[in-house]
Amino acid sequence: VTGLSFGPADLADFAAATGDHNPLHLDPEFARISTFGQPVAHGVLAAAATLGLAGADLAGVTQLAIDFDLPVLPGLRYRVQAGADSATLRLGDTRVLTIRWAAGRPVPGQDSADRPGRPALGREPADPSGCPPTGPSGCAPAGQPRVLSGRQLTRLRAEAGPYRPDLPSLHGLLRRITGTSIPGRLAEPLAWASFFAGMRTPGRDALLAGIRMSVVADAGDPVNPGTYRVGVPRFDERTGLVTLDARLHGRSTADLTVSAFLRHRIELPSLSETTEALPRSDRLAGRTVLVVGGSRGLGAALACCLAGQAARVLALSSRPAPPELVRRCRAGRLAIDWACCDAGDAEGLSAVLRGLPLDGLVLAAAPRVVGLPLSPEAVPACVAHVDEAIRLALTPLAAAARGLREDAFVLFVSSAAMTRSQRLWPHYVAAKAALEGLAGHTAQHHPGWRVAVARPPRMRTEMANGPASAFGAVPPGAAAAAIIARLLSAAATPGQVQFIDGAAIAHPTTAR
Amino acid sequence: MRTDLSSRQVRDIIVVIFEDIIGAAPPRGLDTTPDDLDDWSSLAQIRLLHAIEEHLGCLLDERFLTAGPALAELADAACAAVGARNDS
Fold first, then answer.
1. pTM listed for this prediction
2. Which of A271, A296, A442, B57 has the fewest CB atoms within 10 Å around its CB?
3. Is the sign of the CA dihedral A37, A416, A317, A386 positive or negative?
C-alpha cells in the first residue's frame, strides 16, 4: 500500500504534457461552479501514477483496463492497493479507480476505429466550436476544449488528427509524484485518451469513465506518425455515456475504447413549473424577502415562487444571475432585484442590506458536494465542507437578523438526506444537521419569527449533476412551489421549527 | 438480442459481468445489493447496466441506472427483456 496525492502544479504539468487543458482540472472558477465545486485531478494522471506505484513489471504489459468510480481531489491523501495483475486507488476504503493489466505480445488486429458496423472514417467533421484537433507539441497551440451538446454529439462523424504528447515531461511528472514511471507505449495512449475525452469528445463537459487499451504493434505508422483515428462516437442519451473506438499511431500502435460521460446541462427554473404547482397570487404583496443563493437551482426557483406571490424579492448570489433567468423573470413581471455578493461575505452583505427591513429570509446557499468516505484521510475535506456550509448560512442570518421584522419567516434549506443519507455523504449530512440545529436555535430565541426547515429530495440542479442524477429527481421549480405553498399555508407554532419534508415536496399535490 | 438463452444462463452471465465490473463476486449471490459492497458505486452501476445491455443486446428499464435494487431484480428484468426460457 502506497500513498499518493496531487497538487495544482501536477495538474498543470500533466495538461502541458498531454494537451488536456480541460478547465475542470485547471480553472478554479470554472471548477467551482461545476458539480464538484473544485478542480479535480485528471483521471489518467491518477491512473498512470497508480500503475507506476503498483510495483508490477510493466515491461511486457500490452493491455490495460481502467475504470473510474470517483473524482480524485487535489490535496487528499489516497492509497494504492496493488495485486498481481490489478491495482486500486482508494480514499480510505473507498475505491476511486481500478486498473488491470495483462502481458503479452502485441497482437495485430483490425483497426478498432474501423470495426464492423461503424461508418468508415471520413474527413474531420464540421466542428461546432471551431477548435482544431490540437496536440501539445508539433501541432497547433493548445486550444480550448470543444463544448458539445448531446444533440451535437449524435451528429459527429469519425475523425482523425495529429497527436504528439510531450512524453519526457510526462515521465518527469510521474517520477516526481511517484518516484517511478510507466513505459511510453502505455503512457502515450493513456495521454491521448485524456486529451481526446477532455478536449474533443465529449470535450469540456466530459467525465472520464473508463479506458480499454491494447498495444497492437511495437512500432507506429511510419507514414503518419503521431496520428489518431476515431470512429463515430456511440452516445447513450439516458446517461450521457459516450463510447469511442480509436487507433493511435505513436511510438507504438494502440487500439483504445474510451468511455466518458457528457455532463448534463442543467436547465434554468421554469416559471410555468412553479405557477402550475403554486398559482400566482398577491398573498405576499408589500412584503420584502431576501433569498440567499437565489440565482440558481432551488434558490432561484424559490425566488421566482415568492415573487409569484407578489413579494418583492432580493436575490443574492456569488455570481451574476444567468441573463436568461433575469429576462424570463422580467417577462413574467416578477419583482426580483438581483445582487452579487458571496453569502459568506459579512461586510458585503451589510453593504447590500443596509438595514433593509425584511419580511422573509431564505437561506439556500450551500457548497457543492463531492462524495467522501468516513475515513481519516477524508476528515479535513469533510470538516471544510461543514465549515463552508454553516458559514454560508450563519453569515447572512446574522447580517439580516437586525432587519427581520417581528413576524418574518426564515426558511433554512436542508435535505431529505437527513433521513435517508448516502454512504459518501457524512459531511453533507453533518452540515445539514448543523443547519437544522441553527434553525432550532433561531426558533427558540426569536419566537416571533416563523422558522421553517425544508428537506427537499434530490433535484435536477448542478448540486447533484451526476450521470444518473436525472432519474427520479424533482424539478427545482416544482419543489420550490411545494415548499412555499407549505410555508404559507401551515400554522406556525411560536418557538418551534416547521419541517417541510421530502415527501411533501416530491409529491406536492398531496402536500397542499 | 440474445434470444437463445435460458434464465439460468442469463443469471450466470450477469454474475460474470458483475464480477468484471465490480471486481468481486457478489457475496450474497443474486440477493446482493449495493449495501453489501462498498465498491458497487453509482458509476459502477451504470457500467454494469451498459455491459449487460451490450452483452445481451437489450435495453433495461431506466430505474436500474440508479443503484438500489438487488442483483436478482436486474437479472429478472434482463430475463424478461431477452425472453429467456424457463429452466424447468
1. 0.87
2. B57
3. negative
